[in-house]
Write a structure and sequence with these properties.
- By secondary structure, the chain is an alpha+beta fold.
- It has one domain: 3-Layer(aba) Sandwich (Aminopeptidase), CATH 3.40.630.
- The protein is built from 4 helices and 9 strands, in the order E-E-H-H-E-E-E-H-E-H-E-E-E.
- It has a 5-stranded antiparallel sheet with strand order 1-2-3-4-5, sandwiched between helices. Strands 6, 7, 8 and 9 form a 4-stranded antiparallel sheet that branches.
- A hairpin with a 3-residue loop joins strand 1 and strand 2.
- Helix 1 packs across helix 2.
- The longest helix has 18 residues.
- It binds coenzyme A.
Length: 184
């Protein structure tokens, strides 16, 4: 897998040394507030295995994100293919998850902007989406800063969650490969 660099972030292959800090962030209730819930060490390690398989099968996936200055593992930013069915699938999504210590610095947006560029320019994607729950304002702020567009007509109920679940309603943001917006 190729490594990519932005001004402050390195997007790279997963290392064995990432497993401990990744499990720590996946066990942090603040990080998983809008996700199905904190993960165990085994679940977190299994997630990395699936990420590796995705890279092998599709040629893209979610990168390990490292702070260039310190060399510290921060979390992930990258591309994924949702496995559930909805009106907008099949599709490719851009996603991010950083350890709490690395929030509030603009790293997610900086890295995701590079991931959009990679998706469009290198993988030839025509559209990249992103979705989250309406309560996840921070994640939506990243989508907006990237120049992704939200059409309320695309909002959906996550098919994997039962009716009435607090995380069932989702907002969908899209960006198409029409140039410009990814670098806005
Ligand atoms: C979603 C998530 C990645 C957003 O992280 P973030 O740090 O808020 O996002 P950004 O990288 O865009 O950083 C923006 C913040 O950095 C600040 N910032 C500081 N220096 C900056 C710089 N040089 N450039 C840009 N922003 C900068 C901004 O002011 C902003 O802070 P604010 O939100 O307090 O106003 C993070 O909250 C997270 O990992 N959440 C848990 C997992 C999750 O929910 N993932 C998404 C599931 S859909």
């Amino acid at each position: 897998m190729q490594t990519y660099e932005t001004e402050r972030v390195r997007l790279r292959d997963w290392l064995k040394a990432d497993l401990v800090p990744f499990a720590a962030m996946n066990a942090d209730p603040e990080v998983t507030e809008f996700l199905p819930g904190p993960m165990t060490r085994a679940e977190s390690d299994g997630f990395v295995d699936r990420i590796r398989t995705q890279f092998q099968e599709r040629g893209f996936g979610v990168f390990a994100a490292e702070e260039r200055e310190s060399g510290e593992f921060m979390g992930f930013v990258g591309l994924a293919v949702p496995s559930f069915e909805a009106s907008f699938t099949p599709c490719v999504e851009v996603g991010w998850r950083l350890a709490r210590a690395h929030w509030g610095k603009g790293y997610a947006t900086e890295a995701a902007r590079e991931v959009l560029r990679i998706g469009f320019a290198i993988h030839g994607l025509s559209e990249i989406v992103s979705f989250t729950v309406p309560q996840n304002v921070r994640s939506q702020a990243v989508m907006q800063k990237l120049g992704m567009r939200h059409d309320p007509a695309d909002d959906f109920e996550h098919p994997r969650l039962p009716k009435g679940h607090r995380l069932r309603s989702h907002v969908l943001y899209r960006m198409s490969n029409d140039g410009g917006a990814a670098n806005a």
